[in-house]
Design brief:
Blueprint lengths: L3 E4 L9 H19 L3 H15 L8 H6 L5 H9 L11 H11 L3 E5 L4 H11 L8 E3 L12 H10 L6 E5 L2 H10 L3 E5 L11 E3 L5 H12 L2
Parallel strand pairs: 1-2, 1-4, 2-3, 4-5, 5-6
Length: 223
């Protein structure tokens, strides 16, 4: 039976294109400053490097791409954290209610590729109490970010339960669900494009249906 539910952040707990674009523009701006080139040139170089890396890996992360330009992992993560989510996200009462309902029956956690301070700012912007999350596996708590197995393994270890007693909720098949399933976790795919897949136990279009999907997983596990 499910004991712990872990969440991804971007495009899972919230979806906001303007916020995501602000991350990208700031990243390109910082790269331009480092390389001493224009914003347009830095943007083009980053995108070209990403396409190049896709030839040898399925999901090159922003951290990995930036490393190709001599930007270390923590510097890249600090650049991401420069964008204040409170300028883009609003209080989400439906999300607050769902998280509260889940927290009444399960332990909750997060596995995310951003810094802890960044994640806490996102919760604050959404109006979700940080106290409802017992386990935080953020980018500053691991040496390698998703889709590497380390964050998922650390999450299970923190929870102190078997992997099959954990559910991971995310929007990315490659970055979230496949690595979570590979270590034995149950998975819920949140996406309008979600469909049946061998690495997915349940799927839904929005985060608001997760409680129902976790109950479904528990029913399937019942003898």
């Amino acid at each position: 039976m499910v004991q712990v539910i872990f969440f991804d952040t971007s495009d899972t707990l919230y979806h906001n294109d303007e916020f995501g674009n602000a991350f990208k523009v700031n990243k390109y701006k910082r790269l331009a400053e480092k390389l001493g080139i224009s914003l347009a040139e830095a943007t083009a170089k980053y995108k070209a490097k990403k396409e190049e890396l896709k030839k040898t890996m399925s999901h090159p992360s922003g951290v990995f791409i930036m490393a190709e330009f001599g930007v270390d992992r923590m510097t890249n993560l600090e650049w991401v954290a420069e964008i204040d989510p409170r300028n883009f996200l609003q209080k989400d009462e439906r999300l607050q209610q769902m998280i509260a309902s889940l927290a009444a029956s399960y332990k909750l956690g997060v596995i995310t590729n951003i810094l802890e301070k960044n994640f806490l700012a996102i919760l604050d912007a959404l109006g979700v109490p940080k106290e409802q999350f017992s386990y935080l596996v953020t980018a500053d708590k691991v040496t390698k970010s998703k889709p590497y197995p380390e964050p998922f393994e650390k999450a299970v270890a923190l929870a102190g339960v078997a992997p099959e007693e954990c559910v991971y909720v995310g929007d990315s098949l490659k970055k979230d669900l496949i690595p979570a399933k590979n270590i034995g976790m149950k998975t819920v795919w949140v996406s309008a494009e979600a469909h049946e897949h061998e690495h997915v136990d349940a799927f839904c279009e929005t985060i608001y249906d997760v409680l129902e999907k976790v109950d479904q997983i528990n029913l399937q596990a019942s003898p």
